[in-house]
Every structure is written in C-alpha cells, then in structure tokens.
Amino acid sequence: MKKLVGLFIGILFSSTVFAGEVASDCTFKGKKLAGKVQFVTSFPDFKVQIVDSFPDLKVQKVSSFPSDCGKWQEVSSFPDFKVQIVNSFPDFKVKYVDSFPGVP
C-alpha cells in the first residue's frame, strides 16, 4: 500500500512540476502552435516559459503568414490562441529564434 501511495504522489508531483511536451505535429492540447497569438495576463490557452536552452518549441516572431509550425504573429484581437508568459509551472517552454522554428 505504501508503494502505491508513493507512486501516486510521484506521478502527481511530476505532472505539476515539468512542462508538457509539444507533439511532433506541432500541437499542444489539440491546438496547432502556429498562427496569430495574443499575449495576455489572465485566462490564457497556454502558459509559456521563455528559455535559452532545452525548449519544447522554437518560436519565430513574424509580421505576416504565420502558417508554419512555431511561427507566431502577435495580434491584439482575433487570435488563434492566447498565451501567458510565466516564470514557473508552464504548459510548455519556448525559445525565440530568428530562423528554423518548430519542434526541436
């Protein structure tokens, strides 16, 4: 019984501490991670942490045609998804790049 409780606590702890993985088809929770994004402070679709190494997704900020994986165009209305920048407990981690965006 103690092993079962320990396993449950370990699974619960690991799922809340580590960021999730972006799928190889560039989706997270069924949403494609390309397109028009609005940065918000509350009620986001995703919580994202900006990192310099070991990202779940490489993001390139573009001014038009954000159709490829990891290309994000910042908008103030009618976004494809909303993102909140956090320092801890993200849904996934991103690194901003100038070229070759996508899943590493």
From TrEMBL:
UniProt keyword list: Signal
Q: Where is the signal peptide?
A: 1-19
Q: Which domain of life is it from?
A: Bacteria
7(1) septoil knot domain ranges (all copies)? 31-103
- Database matches in Pfam families: Septknot (PF19647)
Q: What is this protein called?
A: 7(1) septoil knot domain-containing protein
What organism is recorded for this protein?
A: Leptospira vanthielii
